[in-house]
Amino acid sequence: MIKSRHNKLYLWFFRNYFGMLRAILFRKITVVSEVFIPENRAVLLFQNHFSWWDGYWSYWLSRKIFHRKFHVMMLENQLRKRMFLNRCGVFSIQKNSRDFLNSLQYASEVLNSPKNLVAIYPSGVMLTQHQQKIHFQKGIDRIIFGRTAHFEIVLAVFLIDYFGFVRPEIRIYLEIYSGERTTEALQTAYNSFYQSCIAKQTE
To answer: Once rounded to an integer, what is the mean pLDDT over residues 13-26?
Structure first.
């Protein structure tokens, strides 16, 4: 597997380049529901994956809202095509390989530090934001099960709408998950939260 690295120059470029694009292409970014995370807890973020922008949205949340060091899981074949992302906090996972468990173990180890945030796109693939039922990939249990009191699980739903303007608005909905730490329970809670976000978006 490829472990994440953090290079100040690469992070500066990533932050400023995508920040400039966001200012040009989006009207505004709104956090609809904020959450409080104690300083002694890391953050495991589950987020819908529907666009090319998703890595930047995860990074923006880690920096602006959670104030944690950014890490995000990405398929290894995709990361190898964009290795500069590795220096911005991206680490790899390879399905159906021996390295699969190594990546899950690595994510778990990163969460041992309260200064860190790990973002995961549980669908494992990019889906339209209109697909409101997300199936969680296998393996998440290895991160969330057991002695996990040192990190909080946060559910995030990103939705884009134009609302009569030329440029769209990105809205971010957040919720702390406090249920049973199993993949099935987490999947049910995430899909329920997704439905509630859609309801708020269309009010």
So the answer is: 96
